[in-house]
Amino acid sequence: MNFKTVEELASAVNDWCQQNQVSxxxxxxxNTTTARTVRYYRSQSLVDAPLxxxxxxxxxxxxxxxxxxxxxxAKGLPLSRIQELLIGRKIxxxxxxxxxxxxxxxxxxxxxxxxxSTSETWRMIPLNEDWLIASRRDRALSPEQIxxxxxxxxxxxxxxx
Length: 161
Known about the structure:
It comes from Pelagicoccus mobilis. Helix content is 47%, strand content 5%.
């Protein structure tokens, strides 16, 4: 599995992700991988440099590195943590990550939230210094609902007699 261009590599990753219903959790990244994304991941040491002096500078390892990034993003991990997990991985490790990640997705597919839509309008409702609620459909809460939620989040003093 070799690719002549970074665009071909990105397209193959997108095809795999679409076929296996893999997308980043919580809208933390775009649902598609672009050549620009691959270059950014390279700058963050998530993907190896292209092979030098080759007509096909991207190979299976590059492909599997990108698949691993997408699988870990689907679990909600930030890129800094993904970098820690993937740095120095051999191709056999990356194949195992791909296989294991697919098994996890298949076993939890019924529990997953629907994929994010680019047309969603989110509403953030601050509750206090620590908490906020997000509505994916721009829905508001009534003042009574907000008060009730705040009451749940506010610790009650305990009697220490």
